[in-house]
């Protein structure tokens, strides 16, 4: 009987402990944590960029938020001591009394020292540059056995440069320690040849086009170096590609236009002219000048024949037939003094 009572007391104690634990969890979850984290409460972050740091501080404090300046950068688009970036961004919902991190435009261009990132991995070099306020620029790969290792950098280590400058890196591709056989690419299309070269770890260098009437365009005619069937992995192969012959391109180039202004002007008549401007003008075309010259020549010829006969009929001279049509309707021609 006594042992049974002890068992009951043990079970009752366990139930009390379990109930106390459940109550504690509910108290923390429903009362303590919501009060601590401001549950169901939120504020909209205002946009404080393009504001001075003083105006941004006043606006954030009015909204029930705090602020902290984490970085100064030089940006010509903003005045000095103006906010150029913020985190969290504007319009986001945050808890009351949340801290907003600001980046402010510096009145003086900040300078940083360039770190030495050679012999580091590309990932570590990128982290080092960013920690010093620099950015990795163009990355060029060269053949070397240590893959993704930085071989050189564009800016000298220890040099003072503007914060935010870019540093170009030369990185190893892990190739160059073993020899590979050059695939048979002669007679292949350019795209197929490039693919085969990349598959064996070779690079495509310069591409030279050569006219060929027997082979269709964009086919491989040859490559260099071709002295040995094997080269080191990562080497560059220059290609010679077929194209249409140059003679065909010349025939399809179109007609050649000759400028008529280069043709010599015809000689002017030798007889004396009046003081008025003559029929020649720089704007006249060659065809018009030749017509005028022919008309005057025929007039002069008809005038000389009339002088030899002693009289001159009043006629209109046809410049094409060199014959005249009398205007006196068959009357006796009169002498012209």
Can you give a write-up of this model?
The strands form seven sheets. The chain has a three-stranded mixed beta sheet with strand order 2-5-3, covered by helices on one side. A three-stranded mixed beta sheet has the order 7-10-8, covered by helices on one side. A three-stranded mixed beta sheet has the order 12-15-13. The C terminus is likely disordered. It is built from six helices and 17 strands. The chain has five domains: about 35 residues; about 60 residues, Trypsin Inhibitor V, Chain A, CATH 3.30.10.20; about 60 residues, Trypsin Inhibitor V, Chain A; about 70 residues, Trypsin Inhibitor V, Chain A, CATH 3.30.10.20; about 60 residues, no CATH class. With about 325 residues, it is α+β, with helices and mostly antiparallel strands.
CATH architecture annotation name of the largest domain: 2-Layer Sandwich
Structural class: alpha+beta
Instruction: Note the total helix count.
Output: 6
Instruction: Going across the biggest sheet, name each strand in turn.
Output: 2-5-3
Q: What share of the residues lie within helices?
A: 25-40%
Number of strands: 17
Instruction: Report the order of strands and helices.
Output: HEHEEEEEHEEEEEHEEEEHHEE
CATH class of the largest domain: Alpha Beta
Main sheet specs? 3 strands, mixed
What's the overall average pLDDT, rounded?
77
Total discrete domains: 5
Distance between the termini: 176 Å
Report strand %.
15-25%
